[in-house]
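Same chain as my last thread, 131 residues:
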Amino acid sequence: MRTLLFFFASVFFSYSADCQKTGTFNLGEIWLDNKGVHINVHGGGILFHNGKYYWFGEHKVEGKKGNQAWVGVHCYSSENLINWTDEGIAFSVSNEPDSEITADCVIERPKVIFNKKTGKFVMWVHLELKG
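reply #2:
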């Protein structure tokens, strides 16, 4: 339930630099990560694992190229759903010309689950090939 409430709050509110101090959201302000950079996880989902939340989403770039994948899937972690730590790119586009996951393809709506039976994380995405 807490994750669902956070999802709706993240749609309607933005994070301010004062959020760490006050634990509140402020309308119209940019939500920053632990490095002071705008959180970049579009179309994503949140996974709760071992007492920590992980937020996976499309890493978007500015401009017309923003609808294609140029970076991949970004990951952030949080213990309180307020303060987010940049964990880096969890799934990146490939530089290999024969790969289906190359720059200029479309990666959308990434979701991650933990498979207890295998002990592995599984990610699925909507993928449209380059061109």
